[in-house]
Write a structure and sequence with these properties.
2 domains, alpha/beta, nine-stranded mixed beta sheet, TIM Barrel, 12 helices, Lyase, Ornithine Decarboxylase, Chain A, domain 1, 20 strands, 29% helix, binds ligand LLP
Length: 420
Amino acid sequence: MRGDVFHYEGGHLATEGVRLSDVTDTVPTPFYLYAVGPLVERYRALDRAFANSRHLHCVAMKANSQPALLRPLAMEGAGAEVVSGAELALALELGFSPSRIVFSGVGKTERELVAGIRAGIRLFLVESEAELHVLDRLNARAAAEGRRAPVALRLNPDIDPKTHRHIATGVSAAKFGVDPDTARNLYRRHREFSHLEFVGVHSHIGSQITSVGPLSENARVLASWVRELRSVGVPIRYVDIGGGLGIPYYGDDTPGFTAYAEAMLPHLGDLDVEILTEPGRVLLGPIGAFVVTVLYMKTVHGRNFAVVDAGLNDLIRPALYDAFHRVVPLIDKDTPISNVDVVGAVCESSDVFARDRELPGLERGDCLAILDTGAYGFAMSSNYNLRPRPAELVVDGAAYRIVREAETEAQLVARELGHR
Ligand code: LLP
């Protein structure tokens, strides 16, 4: 825990000098709490690692769209990777300049594509020939006179990222991107799309990738595409290497930003391209904690359970991917350790945040933090079981504040009834 964003100070879990137990004295659980300072530090470290190249880091908004986190990144000069009309609209609202926005996603609607065209975004990451035709037609109608829409095809390079199968995207069985033969054919026919400009290549092979090997292979493949495409007259300016760098959920070792850049740049550094990256988890994951309270302790057939006041509707990663998140008490108690399953209140047997963890003897009312939940935590929350979604707080400087109130039961009931 030493050096972590969340660590113990005098027996209390804290970040940026703020004790989480002080927060729970005033804010009811469950809530997500994010540390802004460490987020900005992480962004700067990533940026420094790529300092010797032309580059733009486009933060993957799907990991966490909380404005209090995205605004400081926009101010640092980050770009945004968006996958929906609302993400695009929010990115613009938060001050990401259109020239720093890339639009990916396997099923963009015409309305979303037109919004991207009107905004004048940096790059459309196109997933199929059919999408190219739609974008070409829409751009002819919606774009400023003569302005061609900048596109990169998303390649499916069939690289195994060695991660959970639900978050492997560049393998041949995945729905994402176009295969190499199709891509080659489309790039060669680029002049047929008179309202598009083929300026980039792109591939995002998956998420939570914990060794640089597959990422480096992806960069190597993309670099060979740049050479090949330029040799047939396609004016490639951008290489978008996607996101995917993993974080140490187990407190183990994963590649840092320097190792990541060192694995990418040898392939791309001499190509005279702008390198685009789309980091999500690696920036946002470690800076968030999900704070819950133990409602009940119980033992069933000899197994100990801590039932907490949250559920898979708030944090679905363990249920969906068997994901591991460290769970730690807000106050480090000197009581005997026992093994417990930390479980949620939702009526699903997969509603288990953590299995068989060694924790100091827990009691009703004790608070726990589920760590590394800044990415794909709140962003994937829902109202399943008609449960209000939790609050979001940030620690900024030495103070904390609520940046999104928890939903209330009354709001949910009114919505079900169709009331405004
Ligand atoms: N770019 C594209 C095109 C993506 O699809 C994604 C994530 C990213 C960038 C950002 O990837 P990252 O750097 O965060 O790995 N819900 C899952 C993760 C799904 C990732 C989806 N795409 C989870 O909780 O593990």
